[in-house]
């Protein structure tokens, strides 16, 4: 018996609640009692694809109940040979064999024994008929342009729900808009017709998804005749029809969906508006659909009743209609009669109250029969109450209360059992209950007694009942021992006694150690953005460890099993990890342990360290020309001591608003003397730093301005650029705004040739920018250059001279190519002579090789000139050219280049590359296999790299294991042969094939393929399916291999690949591949194939033309998906085949039961003679119910023809 354990808090409350509920126990079946119905069917529908129909009724009681049935309130005999009755219950089955319509009706089950009769609710068994449109000839409808019209659908009755669709013969939906509308009944309304509405194939389709059936009405023809006058008119309502008057009543059930519709004719097309008179439309539950013509209100309540108005309007006037909406409700219980057990002499009350709209009528029955008068003296009967006094065993009965109104009936059985019996203890004797030290233990003693009994507990070794605050006996007999200790272990006895007698059972209590937890680290301090890991160490009684479960929480709220949704906090059993810690993660973290008997918890406080708050109250003092003292107050350090302060300034005239670092101050100080530059208007701010990071900057200080002075430094990074020979464009880094020290900054530039005598004077020029162009007398000669800063208050320090070179010129001579050494078929080494230094006219950067392919040595074809280049840095006389084409002739040139550019090229040098190995074949395919042979086909390599000498074909067994078979070689010495037939292979064996192309230099990389041979009696046919569009030009079909068999299909336009209306198998005949450039269009077999296809196409077009003129059949094409009622989810099972306008021929197709393979059906158009299949799966009115795959069903067959086009319809 399961042990109950009480912990603390919510655990205690939950267990107490459960114990309180458990007081109302059922009568044990060993005690005599009236029948109680335990199971019954709801509404049953006889779907044609079900194997049987089961109507259930099960009951318990003592004596064991017997069952009888009524059908439509008349006795129903279960002796019908077709009915299969279940043993020991009232349940019976009706096999789906033959007609079952005579079983339709409302059934009721009665379970009876010697003490009473229980009655089930009515069980309706529905046998739906196959819906059919009536055979009729629909007269054409002719309407003048601008007039209104209605196309009636009048769908057949069938099992709801019903979905109606208007489509044309090609199964394209009729477009609906503000002018065209399909009503709730399925009729198609036109507010004003247009010429484009003329067509002869308006078809109404009715879909019954629960029956998996779609039926089609005969096509209707609408002709719109043109009119010379514009018939503008004000709106006139077509829906609701005029005969309903200005107002119509609407009844809707509470909780259902209210649908109101209005449609008006007129020109221009009227617009529809909705409103609730005296109130507003319910927000959030109302939607307007079908261009405003339908008002939909979901989940209707009583507050939705009232008057609603639809108004149709155009430029010429308005029309309106009122709907009086009444909300009603089926009966529902407010006080449902409850079964009860009484002892002799007792009293009781049965209450039965129900609400609904209209108000339900209450009817009482006893043992299934109407309650007339007072069956037992002393009973008082009211419409909603029965009172019992001085109950005796003859009161034992089943009372039925039935509440009904026009919308339904509900029934409740209430058992009145008058029993006098010695207590029956239902808890097993000698049960053992485990408990944990410090928790509450619960020892069960569940019993049934009538009259009421007294329960007492005692230890087996003690004679007196247990007493004290730690012991409490609940109403259901359970003993609760609070705060148990090891001394509480032992055996206990439970005694239950009433006026009839007493009974006892024993139980034992087993005490176990409590679970303990420890979370580490204790009270950690974690910097923001770091990772925190917490570990929960647990210890528990060895017998509780299998049930131990750990969980985590923070500040009293539990985490999900794996952590937070964003993944920042992850939980893995005893470990909790927080990534990128934030201030929100600070708090108390708890680890909880839960076992089958106890729980435990431990906590740790996490402190998050963050960046400091910004410093405050900045003050300036001791102001000097080049210094100032700054003081401030530190902000909150957020649990981490401030290590330093960073002082920043703003005052750069060139970059106003940009803050730069000026000084760093230890964290213990809050004042600093700052060194300043001249001619700057300073403003300061301070940033605090701790181990976590930097604070936000403080508010800026007051301004402090320093006076100007001469420059303290000269420009740096003096360099030269030149765009032409002998030119020097001297550049340098200008002084920053903070380095200028004053206004009027200029740069004094001086220069002279390096190594010139002292008598040569420096040339000089002063500029305001940071560049100067100078023309010298020599090409690429060194000069000494100086740059000095000057402002209005003086010059900077004496400058240092740097060496710069004047501008370069192009090299004026070309290298001489000495030779080309072939390394392999794609790599050569080129050598050349270097050019003299005085001919470089600058700094030599390297040499450049240019080369191009002139012709192929394989076929002698001249190659277009495509020059490639490769540069080699530095002073060198050789280089390697990679990635050349093998077996080809090349030209190359060499030139020198410096910083200025490239010199002249050398004379072209001619060289050739030798043959190499080919690339791998472009493809390798197994085009035909048999039990011991395989035929392979391949394509030439993209690059032969020489004269092709043949192929190396290798193969070995692989068969899906780790071991592979021996590699077999075949040398194919005919280069032009594109296929090979292997024989003497093992049957039912998997092989891997390798094919390499070869030249005189060897064989290249292989192309590979895998395939398996067939078993005995199998035949392989490699097929190619090609759809031919009858309205397009016919293109040739590619054939991969002579002798292979192929399938040719003719297909209607826009059908899927499996929708062929004709197919045949042909075998190609032709010579083997004889060259790389053979033209397939010149081969006889290809011409014959094209002629055959052209002939078949002509025949097909002729037949279709003849049939169309006769009003015959037309192939339909797949259009849209219909997703019917999700209750059956059978949309993918529904198929159409074709439409016939001369008779109600069936829509070809078949369905399958849920979970079974789809049964195929033929295309069934005017060329149906080319395929074969079952034509008897459909009813003559065009409906189809489907062929279901159960073994016992009749009339289903697998079609061997091509698959029919499937098109589940979509609204």
Automatic annotation (TrEMBL):
Entry protein name: Neural cell adhesion molecule L1-like protein
Membrane topology: Single-pass type I membrane protein
First and last residue of the signal peptide: 1-24
The UniProt record lists the keyword Heme: no
PANTHER family found in the cross-reference section: NEURAL CELL ADHESION MOLECULE L1-LIKE PROTEIN ISOFORM X1 (PTHR44170:SF45), PROTEIN SIDEKICK (PTHR44170)
Localization per record: Cell membrane; Secreted, Extracellular space, Extracellular matrix
Residue span, Fibronectin type-III domain: 614-709, 714-809, 811-916, 920-1017
Subunit structure as annotated in this protein's UniProt entry: May interact with L1CAM. May interact with ITGB1/ITGA1 heterodimer and ITGB1/ITGA2 heterodimer as well as with ANK3.
Organism: Oryctolagus cuniculus
Chain segments annotated as coiled-coil in the UniProt record: none
Main location (coarse class): membrane
Gene Ontology cellular component annotations, sorted alphabetically: axon; plasma membrane
Mitochondrion as UniProt keyword: no
Protein family membership: Belongs to the immunoglobulin superfamily. L1/neurofascin/NgCAM family.
Annotated transmembrane regions: 1085-1106
């Amino acid at each position: 018996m399961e042990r109950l354990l009480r912990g603390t808090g919510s655990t205690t409350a939950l267990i107490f609640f459960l114990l309180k509920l458990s007081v109302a126990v059922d009568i044990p079946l060993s005690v005599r009692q009236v029948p109680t119905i335990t199971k019954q069917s709801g509404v049953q529908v006889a779907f044609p694809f079900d194997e049987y129909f089961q109507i259930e009724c099960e009951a318990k009681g003592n004596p064991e109940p017997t069952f009888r049935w009524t059908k439509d309130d008349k006795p129903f005999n279960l002796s019908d040979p077709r009915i299969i009755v279940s043993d020991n219950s009232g349940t019976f089955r009706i096999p789906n064999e033959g007609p079952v319509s005579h079983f339709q009706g409302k059934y009721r089950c009665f379970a009876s024994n010697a003490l009473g009769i229980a009655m089930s609710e009515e069980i309706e068994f529905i046998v739906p008929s196959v819906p059919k449109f009536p055979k009729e000839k629909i007269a054409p409808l002719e309407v003048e342009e601008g007039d209104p019209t209605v196309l009636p659908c009048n769908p057949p009755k069938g099992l709801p729900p019903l979905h109606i669709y208007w489509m044309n013969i090609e199964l394209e939906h009729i477009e609906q808009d503000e002018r065209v509308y399909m009503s709730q009944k399925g009729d198609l309304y036109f507010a004003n017709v247009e010429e484009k509405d003329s067509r002869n194939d308006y078809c109404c389709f009715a879909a019954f998804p629960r029956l998996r059936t779609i039926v089609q009405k005969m096509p209707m023809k609408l002709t719109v005749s043109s009119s010379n006058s514009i018939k503008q008119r004000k709106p006139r309502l077509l829906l609701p029809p005029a005969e309903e008057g200005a107002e119509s009543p609407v009844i809707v059930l509470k909780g259902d969906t209210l649908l109101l519709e209005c449609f008006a004719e007129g020109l221009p097309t009227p617009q529809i508006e909705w409103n609730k008179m005296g109130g507003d439309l319910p927000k959030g539950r109302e939607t307007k659909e079908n261009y405003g013509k339908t008002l939909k209100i979901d989940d209707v309540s009583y507050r939705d009743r009232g008057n609603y108005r639809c108004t149709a309007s155009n430029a010429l006037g308005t029309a309106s209609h009122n709907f009086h909406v009444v909300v009603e409700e089926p009966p529902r219980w407010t006080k449902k009669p409850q079964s009860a057990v009484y002892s002799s002499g007792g009293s009781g009350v049965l209450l039965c109250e129900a609400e609904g709209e209209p108000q339900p009528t209450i009817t009482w029955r006893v043992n299934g029969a109407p309650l007339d008068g007072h069956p037992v003296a002393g009973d008082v009967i009211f419409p909603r109450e029965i009172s019992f006094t001085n109950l005796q065993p003859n009161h034992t009965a089943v009372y039925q209360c039935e509440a009904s109104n026009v919308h339904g009936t509900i029934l409740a059985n209430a058992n009145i059992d008058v029993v006098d019996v010695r207590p029956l203890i239902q808890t097993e004797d000698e049960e053992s209950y485990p408990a944990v030290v410090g928790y509450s233990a619960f020892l069960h003693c569940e019993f049934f007694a009538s009259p009421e009994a007294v329960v007492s507990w005692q230890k087996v070794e003690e004679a007196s009942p247990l007493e004290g605050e730690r012991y409490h006996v609940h109403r259901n007999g359970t003993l609760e021992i609070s705060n148990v200790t090891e001394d509480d272990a032992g055996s206990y006895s439970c005694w239950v006694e009433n006026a009839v007698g007493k009974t006892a059972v024993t139980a034992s209590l087993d005490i176990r150690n409590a679970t303990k937890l420890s979370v580490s680290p204790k009270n950690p301090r974690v910097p923001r953005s770091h990772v925190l890991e917490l570990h929960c160490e647990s210890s528990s009684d060895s017998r509780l460890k299998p049930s131990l479960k750990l969980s985590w929480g923070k500040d009293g709220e539990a985490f999900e099993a794996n952590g937070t949704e964003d993944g920042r906090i992850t939980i893995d059993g005893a470990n909790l990890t927080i990534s990128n810690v934030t201030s929100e993660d600070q708090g108390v973290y708890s680890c909880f342990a839960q076992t089958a008997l106890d729980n435990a918890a431990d906590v740790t406080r996490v402190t998050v360290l963050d960046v400091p708050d910004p410093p405050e109250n900045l003050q300036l003092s001791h102001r000097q020309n080049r210094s100032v003292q700054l003081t401030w107050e530190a902000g909150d350090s957020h649990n981490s001591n401030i290590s330093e302060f960073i002082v920043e300034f703003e005052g750069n005239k060139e970059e106003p608003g940009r803050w730069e670092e000026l000084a760093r101050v230890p964290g213990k100080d809050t004042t600093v003397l700052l060194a300043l530059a001249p001619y700057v208007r300073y403003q300061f701010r301070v940033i605090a730093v701790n181990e976590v990071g930097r604070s936000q900057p403080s508010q800026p200080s007051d301004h402090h301005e320093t006076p100007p002075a001469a420059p303290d430094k000269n420009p740096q990074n003096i360099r030269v650029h030149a765009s032409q020979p002998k030119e020097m464009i001297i550049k340098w880094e200008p002084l920053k705004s903070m380095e200028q020290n004053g206004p009027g900054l200029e740069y004094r530039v001086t220069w002279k040739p390096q190594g010139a005598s002292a008598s040569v004077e420096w040339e000089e020029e002063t500029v305001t920018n940071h560049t100067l162009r100078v023309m010298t007398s020599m090409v690429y000669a060194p000069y000494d250059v100086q740059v000095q800063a000057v402002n209005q208050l003086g010059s900077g320090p004496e400058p240092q001279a740097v060496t710069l070179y004047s501008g370069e010129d192009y090299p004026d001579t070309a290298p001489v190519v000495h030779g080309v050494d072939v390394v392999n078929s794609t790599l050569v080494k080129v050598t050349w002579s270097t050019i003299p230094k005085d001919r470089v006219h600058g700094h030599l950067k390297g040499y450049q090789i240019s080369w191009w392919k002139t012709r192929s040595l394989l076929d002698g074809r001249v190659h277009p000139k495509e020059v490639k280049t490769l540069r080699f840095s530095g002073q060198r006389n050789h280089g390697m050219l990679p990635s050349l084409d093998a077996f080809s002739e090349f030209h190359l040139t060499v030139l020198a280049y410096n910083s200025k550019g490239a010199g002249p090229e050398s004379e072209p040098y001619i060289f050739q590359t030798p043959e190499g190995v080919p690339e791998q074949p472009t493809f390798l395919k197994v085009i035909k296999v048999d039990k011991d042979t395989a035929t392979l086909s391949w394509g030439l390599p993209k690059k032969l790299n020489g004269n092709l000498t043949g192929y190396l074909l290798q193969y070995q067994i692989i068969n899906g294991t780790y071991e592979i078979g021996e590699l077999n070689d075949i040398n194919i010495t005919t280069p032009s042969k594109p296929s090979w037939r292997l024989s003497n292979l093992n049957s039912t064996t998997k092989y891997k094939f390798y094919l390499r192309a070869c030249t005189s230099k060897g064989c290249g990389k292989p192309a590979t393929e895998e395939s398996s041979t067939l078993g005995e009696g199998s035949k392989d046919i490699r097929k190619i399916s090609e759809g031919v569009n009858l309205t397009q030009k016919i293109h040739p079909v590619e054939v991969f291999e002579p002798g292979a068999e192929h399938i040719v299909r003719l297909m209607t336009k826009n059908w899927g690949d499996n929708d062929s209306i004709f197919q045949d198998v042909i075998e190609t005949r032709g010579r083997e591949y004889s060259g790389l450039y053979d033209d397939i269009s010149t081969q006889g077999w290809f011409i014959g194939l094209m002629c055959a296809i052209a002939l078949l196409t002509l025949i097909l077009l002729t037949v279709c033309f003849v049939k169309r003129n006769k009003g015959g059949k037309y192939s339909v094409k797949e259009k849209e998906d219909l997703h019917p009622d999700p209750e059956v989810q059978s949309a993918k099972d529904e198929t159409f085949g074709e439409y016939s306008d001369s008779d109600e021929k069936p829509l070809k197709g078949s369905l399958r039961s849920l979970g079974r393979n789809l049964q195929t059906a033929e295309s069934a158009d005017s060329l149906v003679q080319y395929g074969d299949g079952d034509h008897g799966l459909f009813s003559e009115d065009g409906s189809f119910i489907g062929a279901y795959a159960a073994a016992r069903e009749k009339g289903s067959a697998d079609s061997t023809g091509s698959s029919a086009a499937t098109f589940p319809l979509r609204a």
